[in-house]
């Protein structure tokens, strides 16, 4: 329903803001990470996720579209609601959370308040699968300027191939071929792995 609000920050706290958009003040819940990104700003743009429950309509705001996407992926996991999703995003940076999920670091996720061992394992299991189905940038929280070989390597590792073996194959391809797109490099590597 809402994609983002762009307006004046009438009130800021580490857990929520009131953003004035054309004379209407919206109470928006935020993560500590988002607070750290907007704390020195008077005007800002927050990407919004509206969560509808029987007894409330709650707005959650994020400093970047990537953080919003990560939040929505987190709350899609059974047992993780919006408040727990916000807690996860408040405990680490979105990049650290994404990395922990992608690398299956159950211990790091388990350290977050409200996340037990079973929930941490379920979170990793479900989001790693989503990541594989949606492609390498499914949980991407920042636009990364990776080289084509690095992107191809990341994609191959996400597909479940051994990093060392994938690097060797990509290095061989780079010696014989030039000017390949990421897709073409991945296709060639898949034939050789």
What features would you describe in this structure?
- The protein has 193 residues and is an alpha+beta fold.
- Helix content is 50%, strand content 20%.
- It is built from nine helices and five strands.
- A five-stranded mixed beta barrel has the order 1-2-3-5-4.
- Strand 1 and strand 2 form a beta hairpin.
- Helix 8 packs across helix 9.
- The N and C termini lie far apart (44 Å).
- About 3% of the residues have low confidence.
Question: Which labels suit this protein?
Answer:
193 residues, alpha+beta, five-stranded mixed β-barrel, 9 helices
Q: Helix segment count?
A: 9
Q: Give me the side-by-side strand order of the main sheet.
A: 1-2-3-5-4
Coarse structural class: alpha+beta
H and E order: EEEHEEHHHHHHHH
Provide the β-strand percentage band.
Answer: 15-25%
Count the E strands. 5
Largest sheet: 5 strands, mixed, barrel
- End-to-end Cα distance: 44 Å
Overall 3D form? elongated
Q: What Rg, in angstroms, do the CA atoms define?
A: 20 Å
Overall pLDDT metric: 85
- The residue ranges in which pLDDT falls below 50 over 5 or more consecutive positions are 141-145
* Helical content band: 40-55%
